[in-house]
């Protein structure tokens, strides 16, 4: 069992398993959602990811081993620079409540060769239900424990000030960090007995925390007890400042909650408007269904008239043939019948032409609309009108050759794009007109207005 196999054996947190797949942008084959696959199946697939054997990993071909790329994302366990491997493994053993896979990763990152040597015993412990890091390193005397404590704790001895300052600095605000940098040249010439005096003199422009911190950094050779005391004073001042910030944030949190409630109220109002729009859409769909039924009835009527026309034409042809054969013998009655049939045919032709023109007018859009709002509700409300979002213009422009008028929503459209659409519409012989609308409702109202305007003109 290698380090990847053992790491995955120790890994039992499904959230971290899903996070690993997310880091490498991978999905278990055959499972579109992470939750639809078992933990064991996911871990088997993660093994292929760590080995760089999936299709996606082969395509990426990134530098570095995927497994070590991932475990390097872990926050490192605190340790001294000169910590020995034995002390480090004892420290990992004492962290038995911390996830075993995390501790194993820390061991690989800090002491890779020694960790691989200890792996057989760690694997045996795991198989026997023990903590993998229970490697038998125990203290037989109090002195051994004290020596281990001194070697592994950062806040002891001469390095205490340096370690403590490094941790404190992580919590400094950007403003404090800038002040500390400004003070480097100023505090370098301070004497230790002048600190309080300098704090009073510089207090108007520099906080005491920054002055003391800068003094410690610029006087590493000062008496260690004094530096320790000043370091603790820095920590106390930092805690006071953070406490003040927390109180201010509590007030800001209350204001934020009030803003959230205001937004919730606004959303509730929007929801009511959405219900109103949905009701209107339902009514529009009913009208569209009625129009569809009416169009179907007219189409049936057209077919019936065509059938009647064919029948009349057949009779006319028969009568015409008979008239030609018996032209000399035909009487006034036959002539009258012929003229009557001819008139009926002409009437039917006119009716069919009128009906076809009506159906064509009903089905052919009179105008087209280009809008900029992010929605598809407009196409649903006016399926009989050629409408499109500005992002689809290149495809849409080939569909509007039959219209005579193009309306363009000016809001949200760049000037170059607006004039480009006008120019291309002109090439098709289509007139254009711009309109202003700052919402979906505004666009819908304008289309309704143009439809009514078109009916009045017709």
Please give a structural write-up.
The chain has 458 residues and is mainly α. The protein has five domains: 3-71, no CATH class; 85-152, no CATH class; 157-222, no CATH class; 287-363; 367-457, Rossmann fold, CATH 3.40.50. It is 67% helix and 4% strand. It contains 19 helices and four strands. A four-stranded parallel β-sheet has the order 2-1-3-4, sandwiched between helices. Helix 16 links the parallel strand 1 and strand 2 (386-389). Helix 1 (3-10) runs antiparallel to helix 7 (100-110), helix 13 crosses helix 14 and helix 14 runs antiparallel to helix 15 (332-363). It is elongated. The two termini are 84 Å apart. The mean pLDDT is 80.
Sheet with the most strands, sense and barrel status: 4 strands, parallel
List the uncertain runs.
Answer: none
Number of helical elements: 19
Could you tell me how far the N terminus lies from the C terminus, measured between alpha carbons in angstroms?
A: 84 Å
